[in-house]
Specification:
Layout lengths: L2 H25 L24 E9 L6 E9 L6 E7 L9 E10 L4 E8 L4 E6 L2 E2 L2 E6 L8 E4 L2 E7 L2 E10 L5 E10 L2
Antiparallel strand pairs: 1-2, 1-12, 2-3, 3-4, 4-5, 5-6, 6-8, 7-8, 8-10, 9-11, 10-11, 11-12
Length: 191
């Protein structure tokens, strides 16, 4: 091969590399220097009455008696989360004591309250609410999928009866019978 071909091939290779570098430079994103603003802390004033220790009695229409849950609600150190730690006592039909944690915050980007629940024995859930309307707040399950026995559910309506008492109502639909089962809770504040 002559020197002339080496020169032509070398020039062609250089042109390809140069055009790739120009294309890469054009595709490089501009680095923004404006800092991302910090999310505002939630205004928990409508929920401050929930702080403290509570005892709740929950009755499912398909169970012979209510089960009892004790809980303590505090604010986390950041001020972004209201944290409720609960213990549900064992019952004859569910002979295990269980524990869970609810963490509530306000998502200012979507304009809704969010409750993230985790519990021992692998339980979990996420509910959302647009907020209080008078003395009630309605929580809708964001992750519900029909399961082996439950094929539907209603949102949970929590009602503030006073600063020391709340009630809640929801229902779920059994797959086996098709009937709706009411679940009602009464909570009283102990401190």
């Amino acid at each position: 091969m002559s020197v002339r071909w080496f020169t032509i091939l070398g020039g062609l290779a250089l042109a390809i590399v140069a055009s790739g570098a120009i294309a890469f430079a054009a595709a490089t994103p501009t680095i923004e220097k404006t800092p991302v603003p910090k999310a505002p802390k939630p205004n928990f004033s409508s929920m401050n009455f929930l702080m403290g220790a509570w005892t709740c009695s929950t009755k499912s229409a398909r169970r012979p008696a209510a089960y009892i849950t004790t809980s303590v609600t505090t604010m986390d150190p950041t001020g972004y989360w209201m944290v409720t730690k609960s213990i549900q006592k064992a019952t004859p039909w569910f002979p295990y004591q269980t524990a869970g944690t609810d963490m509530v915050t306000y998502d200012s980007a979507t304009g809704r309250w969010v409750d993230v629940f985790t519990g021992d024995q692998g339980s979990y859930g996420v509910t959302t609410s647009p907020g209080w309307s008078g003395a009630t707040i309605v929580w809708t399950d964001a992750l519900f999928k029909p399961g082996t026995d439950v094929i539907g559910e209603t949102p949970t309506t929590l009602t503030k009866a006073s600063d020391t008492k709340t009630t809640a109502h929801s229902a779920f639909r059994e797959k086996s019978s098709g009937r709706w089962i009411a679940v009602d809770t009464v909570c009283t504040k102990s401190s």
